[in-house]
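[audit] Reproducing an earlier prediction to check determinism. Same input, same settings, fresh worker. If the tokens differ from the archived copy the diff job will pick it up downstream; this log only records the rerun itself.
[audit] input (213 residues):
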Amino acid sequence: MRFFLTTILIFMTAFLTSCGISDSPEDALQEIQESLNKRDFEKFSARVDTEKLFAQIYEDATIELAKKCDEFGKKYPKDPYFQHDGEFIKNYNAEHRELHLDFARKSMVAYFENLPAPDKPQDNPYAYVAHEFTKIYFVSTAEVEDVKINGNSATVTVNINGDRSLLGIFVGFLNFELGFEKIDGKWILTKIENIEELTPTIVDKAELIWINL
């Protein structure tokens, strides 16, 4: 859950801060960026298949977390999630899949509805996550590094950099490979292609964010 939400928080920053874009997959990024800036869910959902995207992140992350469970367990001995084996993680995530995906959906809705930040995270965890995303946006910049198109599929590589603030240092540098599909003539974001590469770094960040909640 921590990994999943942290991934969502950081990768969405790419859309709020991307610039210098001009072609078809890049046009999709531009529209996503504008929809997030204006909190326009209809425009956002026209360019992002959130159900497919969130499910892909969750499933790919589960595979990587299970694969590296021993490594993370040694690094974070106080986190009970990693004090089991890979089969436990796969079973646990499968059992709680819909609960976790629903949390992500409701956090996204809280962002687009611009709900006020709660005094305490437990008062409204969805609004809390939405405001954490906004904080990350303000301390981050993103740059499109590369675009590769292969038929009806495209990969857009986006580099995210945090500024020199404490939160910006937390964000650091991350490289996202965003997968798009051309559906009915329109480029739609459907996946993050390099979850395996991102997993160790985002686990570290997730432990910092969520361990005190």
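[audit] rerun output stored. Observation attached for the diff report: The first strand starts at residue 140 and ends at 150.
[audit] end
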